[in-house]
Design goal:
Blueprint lengths: L2 E10 L11 E5 L11 E3 L11 H7 L5 E8 L2 E8 L11 E5 L8 E3 L11 H8 L3 E10 L4
Parallel strand pairs: 2-3, 6-7
Antiparallel strand pairs: 1-8, 2-6, 4-5, 4-8
Length: 146
Amino acid sequence: MPRKIVERITARGHENIRATHGNTLEITKEGHLTPRGDCIVAVSADRGFPEFSDNFKNALRNKRAILRMTIECSGVNDEIIAYGHPELRFKSPEEMVIRKSSFICDRTLAIRANKAAIDLNRNLIEKLRRGNPVNIKLEVIYSNDF
């Protein structure tokens, strides 16, 4: 029977959010962002890998786990679907990256995503550029039967 484990992040937008990267999107605990950070969609995150529960991380390490990420800012939201993998390490203390590819490193939260930063709702990106608060819901859907 499928189960869900949820983690929530509070962050904020930033005037330099461009969200033009075609393969990844990133959330960071860092508060500063230069225009070069074209995959970053939220800064000053209050939580990251070190604060996530072991249950959440272990569930996402299931090779058939699905991650549903919802990003909401000023009443506008978008949803990203990505997948877990047994080799996910969750070691970066600051950065969490969702990738369209299957590449895994210490910063990878999930892989094979249906969207990257460039694919996000542009109304959402405009709200993020104003520095507004951002609510992020990370929901792992998995089953012990996988």
